[in-house]
């Protein structure tokens, strides 16, 4: 089946500004392992789930795609005797679809995949689905050409193909996706998205394998929230851009606050449930305070605890004659505050039972009703909004920054009246930095990263892999040192558990879950080291606008640069050590060498057995 006529203006040539035209001429660099037309792949051991306690559940749910090996793509000069070298590249037909919210740099994945496909066989075709997964189900397609790409290279948005809903989940949707792949005779389907979209990609790959559909499914980590993060994925395409754009805006606000000296700015940042964007923006712009959802969850802070924390900071600054400041708040904070999360769960439960919005407040439990009535009317209305498809709140619509600003103002006025605060009247201004950045021109890093991931997708297809995610590690280094590979999506899955009393628990479905800020990580440690000076000293920092040339062009996210996360590199290093041990300890070696090897390996295995146990890795019910 061929293309369906294009809807709307998908793929239409853009009118580019001089700056956009200059950007379109930039050609991203490829790491050595992706250069040339020969694909060299080395397979590692079977990849197991990091969730030790959930591994059995995951393997049962994905019998055809769980336990597949890691794949490392090698450069021409690599000396690996058992590497699989692929020199024949038959004609292929590949489909690609955006699934999830638009993220800067996502369109470069399409460009990278197109260039890779055509470099290996000019007769191969790349077919884009129009309007996201709805277009996939309805077989609405457009063949990607050089002419199509010309005005979308290194540009923001998803308007080349568009997007709609973010799921391929129901039986009908999976059947429709498979029917499309069979009708279009696709060798592969590439799904660009975040945690939810890649979970769907894994399920689709499993279903295709079970039903012997020849189409291979590949996932690409693209989400501005930065919450698709694990042993194999260091960061996602779009995160760097979002943080740089927001950091400049925050810095502008910081300068304004310092100039006027009479306002506190409460800024809510996008990022869904995780606080990665808020953390990175804080490290880049140095606001006076940042409230991370993960801190709140860990310490079980109530809305009143957070209010007091901010009020105490305002009072401490007033004692130094400072009546201005900037406070960052992640949009997911509302779901991290225990009592507000519990209230939301009750409201969503009533939605699911069919209770109308007008009647929900009268059906709440006594404690929930009391909390609901305490909250300002604007927040009540926002909490009553219907939940998202994943049962989470409509976080972008809930103005937590206004709620906190109002509560802080009330408390400061109370302290002023009681005489415990002797400073000036508290004044607040609130902002939400959300949709403004989603269509931003991508940073150089996101342009490079997206383009390289597109090439990795072709390598995965050439190797005949199904149910894998394209990965690039060692990202904090120059592109020439990036390491490219592929990891089974099932190895990134976890199984959530909910306590249902002292003896029972409920187990959720295996999924690629959102990763929150690591409170033991180096990025958070860096924030902690500087939080006191950020609070009191006004050492605001402006990273400036996005640049393709000049001093800011090569900067990477600070939270990426300070971490040491080259997991795939370490796996490779371990394999090399094991091979070296095998080459030294073999029949004929000395008794002393053999004893030393056995003793050392016994100690290592004992320690690793303990570290791999569910109790050690903290797999407890919640």
Automatic annotation (TrEMBL):
HAMAP family on file: Phosphofructokinase_II_Long
The Gene Ontology CC terms held by the record are:
cytoplasm
Pfam families assigned? PFK
Tell me the protein's name.
Answer: Pyrophosphate--fructose 6-phosphate 1-phosphotransferase subunit alpha
The record's function comment reads:
Regulatory subunit of pyrophosphate--fructose 6-phosphate 1-phosphotransferase.
Family listed:
Belongs to the phosphofructokinase type A (PFKA) family. PPi-dependent PFK group II subfamily. Clade 'Long' sub-subfamily.
The pathway to which it is assigned is: Carbohydrate degradation; glycolysis; D-glyceraldehyde 3-phosphate and glycerone phosphate from D-glucose: step 3/4
- In which organism is this protein found? Urochloa decumbens
Q: Which gene encodes it?
A: PFP-ALPHA
| Compartments, as annotated in UniProt | Cytoplasm
């Amino acid at each position: 089946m061929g293309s369906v006529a294009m809807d709307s203006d998908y793929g239409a040539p853009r009118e580019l500004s001089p700056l956009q035209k200059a950007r379109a001429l930039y050609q991203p660099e490829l790491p050595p392992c992706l250069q040339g037309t020969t694909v060299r792949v080395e397979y590692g051991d079977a990849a197991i789930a990091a969730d030790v306690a959930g591994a059995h559940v995951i393997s049962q749910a994905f019998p055809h795609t769980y336990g597949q090996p890691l794949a490392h793509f090698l450069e021409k000069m690599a000396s690996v005797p058992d590497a699989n070298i692929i020199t024949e590249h038959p004609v292929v037909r590949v489909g690609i679809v955006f699934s999830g919210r638009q993220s800067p740099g996502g369109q470069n994945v399409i460009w990278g995949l197109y260039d890779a496909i055509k470099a290996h066989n000019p007769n191969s075709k790349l077919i884009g689905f129009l309007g996201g997964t709805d277009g996939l189900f309805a077989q609405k397609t457009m063949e990607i050409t050089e002419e199509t790409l010309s005005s979308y290279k290194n540009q923001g948005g998803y308007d080349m193909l568009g997007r709609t809903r973010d799921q391929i989940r129901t039986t009908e949707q999976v059947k429709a996706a498979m029917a499309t792949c069979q009708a279009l005779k696709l060798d592969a389907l590439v799904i660009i998205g975040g945690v939810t979209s890649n979970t769907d990609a894994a399920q689709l790959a499993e279903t295709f394998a079970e039903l012997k559909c020849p189409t291979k499914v590949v996932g690409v980590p693209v989400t501005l929230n930065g919450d698709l993060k694990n042993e194999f994925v260091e960061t996602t395409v779009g995160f760097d851009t979002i943080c740089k754009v927001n950091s400049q805006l925050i810095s502008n606000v910081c300068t304004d606050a310092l100039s006027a000296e009479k306002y506190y700015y409460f800024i809510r940042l996008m990022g869904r449930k995780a606080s990665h964007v808020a953390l990175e923006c804080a490290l880049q712009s140095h606001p006076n305070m940042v409230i991370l959802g993960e801190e709140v969850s860990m310490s079980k802070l109530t809305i009143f605890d957070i209010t007091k924390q901010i009020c105490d900071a305002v009072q401490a600054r007033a004692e130094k004659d400072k009546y201005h400041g900037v406070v960052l708040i992640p949009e997911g904070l509302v779901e991290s505050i225990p009592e507000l999360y519990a209230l939301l769960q009750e409201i969503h439960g009533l939605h699911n039972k069919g209770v109308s919005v007008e009647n929900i407040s009268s059906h709440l439990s006594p404690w929930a009703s009391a909390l609901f009535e305490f909250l300002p009317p604007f927040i009540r209305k926002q909490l009553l909004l219907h939940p998202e498809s994943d049962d989470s709140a409509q976080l972008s619509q809930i103005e937590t920054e206004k709620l906190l600003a109002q509560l802080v103002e009330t408390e400061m006025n109370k302290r002023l009246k009681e005489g415990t605060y002797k400073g000036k009247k508290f004044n607040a201004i609130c902002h939400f930095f959300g949709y403004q950045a989603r269509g931003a021109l991508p940073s150089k890093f996101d342009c490079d990263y997206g383009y390289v991931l597109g090439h990795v997708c072709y390598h995965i297809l050439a190797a005949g892999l199904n149910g894998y995610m394209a990965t690039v590690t060692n990202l904090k280094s120059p592109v020439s040192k990036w390491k490219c590979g592929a990891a089974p999506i099932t190895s990134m899955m976890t199984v959530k558990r909910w306590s249902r009393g002292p003896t029972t628990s409920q187990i959720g479905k295996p999924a690629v879950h959102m990763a929150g800020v690591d409170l033991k990580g180096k990025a958070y440690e860096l924030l902690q080291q500087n939080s006191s000076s950020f609070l009191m000293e006004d050492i605001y920092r402006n990273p400036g606008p996005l640049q393709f040339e000049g001093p800011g062009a090569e900067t990477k996210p600070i939270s990426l640069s300070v971490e040491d996360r080259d997991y795939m590199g370490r796996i490779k290093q371990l394999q090399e050590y094991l091979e070296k041990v095998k080459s030294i300890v073999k029949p004929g070696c000395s008794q002393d060498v053999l004893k030393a090897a056995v003793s050392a390996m016994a100690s290592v295995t004992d320690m690793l057995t303990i570290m791999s146990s569910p109790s050690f890795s903290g797999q407890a019910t919640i």
